[in-house]
Model the fold of this input.
Amino acid sequence: MSPTQIAIALWTLVHKEIKRFMRIWPQTLLPPSITMTMYFIIFGNLIGSRIGDMDGFSYMDFIVPGLIMMAVITNSYSNVASSFFSNKFQRSIEEMMVSPMPNWVILAGFVLGGMARGLGVGLIVTIVSLFFTRISMVHPLLTIFVVVLTSALFSIGGFINALLADKFDDISIVPTFILTPLTYLGGVFYSISMLPALWQGVSMLNPILYMVNVFRYGFLGVSDIPVVWALSAIVAFIVVLFGIALWMLDRGKGIRS
Amino acid sequence: MATPALSIRGLTKVYGNGFHALKGIDLDVQQGDFFALLGPNGAGKSTTLGVVCSLVQKSAGQISIFGIDTDRDFARAKYHLGVVPQEFNFNQFEKVIDIVLAQAGYYGMSRSEALPRAKRLLGDLGLWDKRDGSARMLSGGMKRRLMIARALMHRPKLLILDEPTAGVDIELRRSMWEYLRRINREEGTTIILTTHYLEEAESLCRNVAIINHGEIIRNTSVRALLTELDTETFLFDLAAPLEAVPQIEGFEVQQIDGAQLAVMVHRGQRLNDIFAALGEQGIEVVSMRNRANRLEEMFVTMVEQGNADLARAAAAAEARP
Done:
């Protein structure tokens, strides 16, 4: 395919993915907005006022970046996982497989679609948070860079999950039993400096901690871990997972008999 | 001779459970042909087409599409290929127009080029009025036509249809046949189809391959195949029921019910002799027709012969010390 044809194919797929989650917005865009509003009201306003400051900031200000990141992670992941698996289930993935589209375009199309939803929900949550606090960004470019990378990473994760899934249950196992616990334990609601040394060490094995921290650094200018280290880890994860996803796609894992 | 539209050499497929779906088949389909791939369920028809379309991974063998080796440049070969699978494989919740436009996009067609093409194809196939409706609202026949429109969006030179008229009513089937004949005749599109309706193959196709147990057991023209037909069975509807089966010298006669006879006619025998014999016995014939489609009769014979050979071979292997 020529570069122009590849661009058309990629845009077709991305456009289709965006149309899909916009068509079903009560299932894709509305629920995270409501959930995050609840978090802001309960944890930020009601309980947060009794917790006091965290790392020198009000508890509400402290949790806003983490909650935005949580929404971005879960929505990026679940969008690609459910959309790609649905394509597998309805066999409409064959439309793409019989076409001359390279596999990396298929992967990139779904990942960009997941990012569109993840970042879209992130934006909605950010707007909602403005009703509860004043947001300031110390490092706006870094903030945007990190959230885009994180969204890409979890979109790729959702793609791999969908490739391996045989039934709909298989695409809810990872978000329920891995992603949610890691996100909650990834410093969204607390600073790991509050933990005993042992658990601080254990927390450092949680990749989501790095993303939440560097994102919070972009907003507040404080982080539990070095920013460069966190950024390098995210980029490394993206490169490795993209490679794995492409390798699986090239071998027809989960889609070719 | 022009490069074949499709050339298959030594194609083998062994599934993960050890089942040998294809046992090294060779097949050539010439450009412009209307070709039927026939075989009973599980014979290997869909697997063959699945490998050609890249939906199934081959275990061994070579495939060329218009001379392009799929191992070397499958992407380029795919531009020549349009696929209409057996099962509906589009997103049922999408609009009809979105489905065909997306397919064009996957082939790198711009929207300005794809839209007039979609209008023409959906119009030709009677779906233009349904373009803004969800695909799940279409009837079964419309869904099949949607898959044909989708497969033709990028102007493929080779169209592969896996049982395209399964579950389609007779009237719609005939209109689909006419459409396929038209694109074969007017646009020179090479068409390969698998079908269970042997009448379909006889009516549409010039050449045919019969596959059974993963092997091509016959590959010839439909005309040549029919000339080999040794026996045909004719049904005679009678004016009045008979109490006993009439004897007709040289013919095998069966009574289907009181007023219907089945007569087996071998090559070289004359129908006039049957009418004469029945007339002599005072039996009046109201109408006459073939019991089965002619090709079907031959197909059943071949497949049964193949199955019997296989059973004999298995028994012989079993009996070996």
About this structure: Chain B has two domains: 6-226, 229-290. The CA atoms of residues 206 and 270 of chain B lie 28 Å apart.
